[in-house]
Specification:
By secondary structure, this protein is an alpha/beta fold. It contains twelve helices and 19 strands. It folds into two domains: about 325 residues, TIM Barrel, CATH 3.20.20.80; about 110 residues, Galactose-binding domain-like (Jelly Rolls), CATH 2.60.120. Strand 4, helix 7 and strand 5 form a beta-alpha-beta unit. It binds beta-L-fucopyranose (FUL). Beta-L-fucopyranose (FUL) binds next to loops. Beta-L-fucopyranose binds next to loops.
Amino acid sequence: MRKLIYILGLISLVSCTQKVKTNIGNNYSAISSEQTEDEIIRIAANVAPSERQMHWQELEFTAFFHFGVNTFTDREWGEGTEDPKLFNPTELDARQWVRTCKDAGIKLVILTAKHHDGFCLWPSKYTEHSVKNSLWKNGQGDVVKELADACREMGMKFGVYLSPWDRNSQIYGDSPKYNEYFLNQLAELLTNYGRVDEVWFDGACGEGPNGKRQEYGWDAYYNLIRKLQPEAVIAICGPDVRWVGTESGYGRETEWSIQPVGLRATEDIADNSQKDENDVPDGNIEKQDLGGRSRIIRAESLVWFPAETDVSIRPGWFYHADQDSLVKTPEKLVDIYFSSVGRNSGLLLNIPPDKRGLIHENDIKSLAGMKLILDKTFAMNYAIGANLKSDGKNVKAVLDNDTKTFWTTKGESETGMIQISLTEPQTIDVLSLQENIRISQRIEKFTFEYLDGAQWKTASEGTTVGYKRLLRFAPVTSKEFRLKIEASRLNPTLSELGLYKLASIND
Ligand code: FUL
């Protein structure tokens, strides 16, 4: 059924401003056993995002709000037996959450409408375990509504997290019945609160071998989402956005958005997700390569399945007062940004509201510091105004701030070079690259060089680019730089190129 969803999306080809045919919508391709390696590479080099995935890619930086009964019990995973009366924020202000995120450059926020304990932050008709039986606003409150309204008012995109695992529901494990319950809850969330841009299905399920085993009705969940909110991406246990595979905040250096289809299996995602309340899947995945040639030539089909890196600003996902001093510093958040957004992945940063129902002052301070460093760093692209030369076509496009226009090589040449001559020497230590993913992701290897006297030296090198690649390196000073694309699947494309100097908070 998931295949069907992709095949249905195949046809909508959209042309960009240059009247170049893009591959938007061609986000699934089957491979037959007769196809040669070269043919498979050609297929891979034409897989591109669906329209909804393309919108998601452009968000780059999104936020999670883990909030619920755990906020008041100081737990990470509730048992589902908590008294709803425990939920009682004293100053809840969803507009403060959204303002904080907006100020930090975040483009979409996702609320844990229901975490594993089953407590619903909206007055669901289908359970008593919700805000309607809390003391907050005498049971008349609705956190989902307050947040959705604040998002609409402030131009923020809105997403929901609905935990498939539910420790409160008596029918969990009675598969058809629970699936119906889950669909009813999804329908409430997707019909009563306006537009929803992301639905996040967690892979965690801590029921042991003797616990209840629920067969989730994924296809029915996906169909309902497509019907009620066709623009929304379905993330993690879903077909549109992939969990990067760690909660450390550090993604892969080689990150392909084109993947063999098997990687979408929900069972595998569950196996790798959090196993108990204290487990943090923070494995080092930086050296893994999930979509390289050796993997795709064995695939039966290929799909556009981009990575999302989720990480909390604090050690826990939920607010704990004793972690107030452990909020990640602005510098750490910047490092995470470079290692997630800068590695062809979306960043989903968790900022948990406290018992008051507010984002804590320390979190706000760190976010503001992070934003300041990023703003200062990216304020000045030293390549602007440079003289550009290349052995390919349309090189000016890499500086026009339009991700739809692009440089490419002649014919199907898989290698190419862009030389950047500045008017004055500059010291830089950041390279930013963006491929035109409306066509596909193709670059496999590149080197960035600077002229030192009469000698070209390597400043940095990398493998994949994708939607965005940010590389930091030891500062180099020169007037002459060049980017060499050394390997690609068909002709590479480049939409944007930037040269920057990393700022510090005190600059
Ligand atoms: C995990 C969950 O178990 C955590 O509580 C948290 O929600 C995280 C985002 O995903 O799998």
